[in-house]
Design brief:
The radius of gyration is 21 Å and the shape is globular. The chain is α/β, with parallel strands linked by helices. The chain has a single domain, classed as Glycosidases (TIM Barrel, Alpha-Beta Barrel), CATH 3.20.20.80. A hairpin with a 6-residue loop joins strand 12 and strand 13. The structure holds beta-D-fucopyranose. The site of beta-D-fucopyranose has 12 residues, from loops.
Length: 479
């Protein structure tokens, strides 16, 4: 059941809790040809006809590259004490190999200094999907060398920013990079090759492990290294053994394929069985699992909606729910016998059902899966069709209610023993939503795409009050 809109007792968080917002480089920066930056796979993909809604791309995005000072000031005005952003690899190391470009690193140094100056704790994500195009041309994530290139890039950024950034995230949602990028093709680089997607998954795991070691060697020991997974909360439509088996298979392909090697040093045997007709996994070399299974300082969880599955021959078969766009190619290699269903209840503009119980379930699962590991919610939020009223204000009560429900679920998990240290709302401001272009607005801050003017929505004011007081305001307060 969704959380009640306004609970009887105030929902108060521990004093050190981080109240942040998240963004990623390609979605906000623009300035794609400045400072020696070269194209990433997202530049190429978004400029390929038919790949994004309306052919939209991130050439200008919300021009954060030039407006970062104002954006940081806006966060400070709202009352946020943390900000998660990503580094554009091809801004820092344009060919994906060799020496860094100082202009690129300087941009991020200035951004971090601005944040620290305003008392906002930076969390850096090294990879939020924008592989330098040159590395894709050399084979991309299905190619083993890409993992070594990533470790080299991690070392460069760790050396440049490790003195001032404590919180590090290697990869954002490797599931999307591997399976939306190389299997269903709805994300860059848009390949539709199931065998390549599983190879990509392994090399992303290897990249994470090698980068974790490289960061540790390059930075002060106090810094924290984590990664952000979009682990799925997978629910079977019934307790029928065929539906339970379908849920287990999707759990392997969504979750076990990453947390197996990263947290436990092994891929699930059932994953090998499910994918045996597609790949023999012979690219998992001796020593890889040890390299991947590095101790972490924290784990980031991104959550939006649960997945509801059944065996494919179940009568309930309905529309696919694959997240960021649909394609005739499945992002689930080896799972043609599984059907996805619309989860019941209210939905956001993405068509994703609103279910805070899934967030609670996810947190409790990783509390068991990785005992003792601090957790952060590194993304959670909702898209709505926000529009300014005649006075120019943007009222988004649905988003306030979404945030309230999910933050209350986080608090409930903390009461149930989970060590959740912070929450990053996706997203600080409206931005380029990948294959959907600019049509889906996830921001707490509204962006007018003609003038690029920023206007905090009522949810931003609500969230800012939560951040300043450590207590969730009633849902109606900012209206
Ligand atoms: C996540 C992505 C983020 C954004 C949200 C809506 O999967 O990490 O960039 O697209 O979904």
């Amino acid at each position: 059941m969704p959380e009640p809109a306004t609970p009887a007792t105030p929902v108060t968080f521990p004093p050190a809790f981080l109240w942040g917002a998240a963004t990623s480089a390609y979605q906000i920066e623009g300035a794609v040809r400045e400072g020696g930056r070269t194209p990433s796979i997202w530049d190429t993909f978004s400029h390929t006809p038919g790949k994004t809604a309306g052919g939209e791309h991130g050439d200008i995005a919300v021009d954060h590259y030039h407006r970062y000072r104002d954006d940081v000031a806006m966060m400070a005005d709202l009352g946020l004490n943390a900000y998660r952003f990503s580094i554009s690899w091809s801004r820092v190391q344009p060919t994906g190999r060799g020496p860094a470009v100082q202009v690129g690193l300087d941009f991020y140094r200035r951004l971090v200094d601005e944040l620290l100056d305003k008392g906002i704790k930076p969390a850096v994500t090294l990879y939020h999907w924008d592989l330098p195009q040159e590395l894709e041309d050399a084979g991309g994530w299905p190619e083993r060398d890409t993992a070594y290139r990533f470790a080299e890039y991690a070392q460069i950024v760790g050396e440049a920013l490790g003195d001032r950034v404590e919180q590090w995230i290697t990869l954002n949602e490797p599931w999307c990079s591997a399976f939306l990028g190389y299997a269903s093709g709805v994300h860059a680089p848009g390949r539709t090759d199931p065998a390549a997607s599983l190879k990509a998954a392994h090399h992303l795991n290897l990249a994470h492990g090698l980068a974790t070691s490289a960061l540790r060697a390059a930075m002060p020991a106090r810094n924290s290294v984590a990664l952000s997974l979009n682990s799925s909360v997978v629910r079977p439509v019934s307790q029928d053994p065929a539906d339970l088996a379908a849920a287990r298979k999707i759990d392997d392909l969504a979750n076990g394929v990453f947390h197996g090697p990263i947290l436990h040093g092994a891929y699930p045997e059932s994953l090998f069985a499910a994918t045996e007709l597609i790949t023999d996994w012979s690219y998992v070399e001796d020593g890889d699992l040890r390299a991947i299974n590095q101790p972490l300082d924290a784990l980031g969880l991104n959550y939006y909606t649960p997945a509801l599955v059944s065996a494919a021959d179940n009568d309930l078969s309905g529309p696919r729910a694959d997240g960021h766009g649909s394609s005739e190619f499945s992002p689930w290699p080896g799972a043609d016998d599984v059907a996805f269903h619309q989860t019941p209840g209210e939905r956001t503009e993405m068509g994703w059902s609103i279910d805070p119980t899934g967030l609670h379930e996810l947190i409790m699962r990783y509390t068991r899966e990785a005992p003792g590991l601090p957790l952060y919610i590194t993304e959670n939020g909702a898209a709505y069709d926000d529009k300014p009223d005649p006075d120019g204000r943007v009222h988004d009560p649905e988003r306030i209610s979404y945030l309230h429900g999910h933050l209350a679920a986080v608090r409930r998990a903390v009461s149930d023993g989970a060590d959740v240290r912070g929450y990053y709302l996706w997203s600080l401001m409206d931005n380029f939503e990948w294959a959907y272009g600019y049509e889906k607005r996830f921001g707490a801050v509204y962006v007018d795409y003609t003038t690029l003017e920023r206007t905090p929505k009522s949810s931003a004011l609500w969230y800012g009050q939560a951040a300043r007081t450590g207590t969730l305001p009633p849902v109606a307060v900012a209206e």
